Sequence to fold (281 residues):
Amino acid sequence: MNDTTQDSANGRIRAVLADDERLMREQLRSRLMEVWPELDIVAEAKNGLEAVELCREHRPDLVFLDIRMPGLTGVDAARQIVQLPDDDSWLVPEIVFITAYDQYAVEAFEQGVADYVLKPAERERLAITVARVKKRLAQRDEADGDDAPAPAGQPMQQLLHKLSAQLNPGGAPKYLQWIQATVGQTIQMIPVEDVLFFISDEKYTRVQTASIEALIRKPIKELVDELDPQLFWQIHRSTLVSVKAIAGISRDFRGRQLVAVKGLNEKLEVSRSYTHLFKGM
Fold:
């Protein structure tokens, strides 16, 4: 079992801070050094776009994101950041949101998917956040088997949808109802409710129903934002599966989780970043 602060590169947890206010970044850095002196803050961003690029460059374990930033909000940046890891050597980083408004301190934060700190960051509250993050990172580094505890609460995508709705009040989000896809030489309108899974290669995304296999050019990272996260779970950087289409979970000889799809012989690989979805199943 690895120590809480074990990191494969340098033995320390690596973090990126993002806030458009310099003084807030400095204060957060200072308080973090008080409550978590071993933390390695590898970069600081002034906006959401910088945060995404710095995460792409540094592959951190942890990201602190101000919810309201110019150009790209912290929520939108988080959506892009959780799509960055492309293999199991870098897992989706832990996310901590920073906000000046306690209305964003929604129940989902308390359920363990992500955490939050209010501006200005108080030492006592930050210490609670740090303890939670350390625990989740330790859980990741424990055994890959089913005895490793799973993060509690909603998947990250559901939390991001909820926060996005709060940031942009204007009614419930409108999710895709139909997929316009190529089937052979024709274009067909496929009801989203009929889709079993979406799986992408570098150029196309395959849309699979019980009777149709179709192709679209829309990547998974766009579909994630357009589909109801209660109905479709992302299980891999390249795969979304309908919850109602999941027949069961198994492991192959390499220990990887595989999702069996109802009515099909095909099995879909679950990457390590998403294995928590099936803990306890």
The radius of gyration is 19 Å.
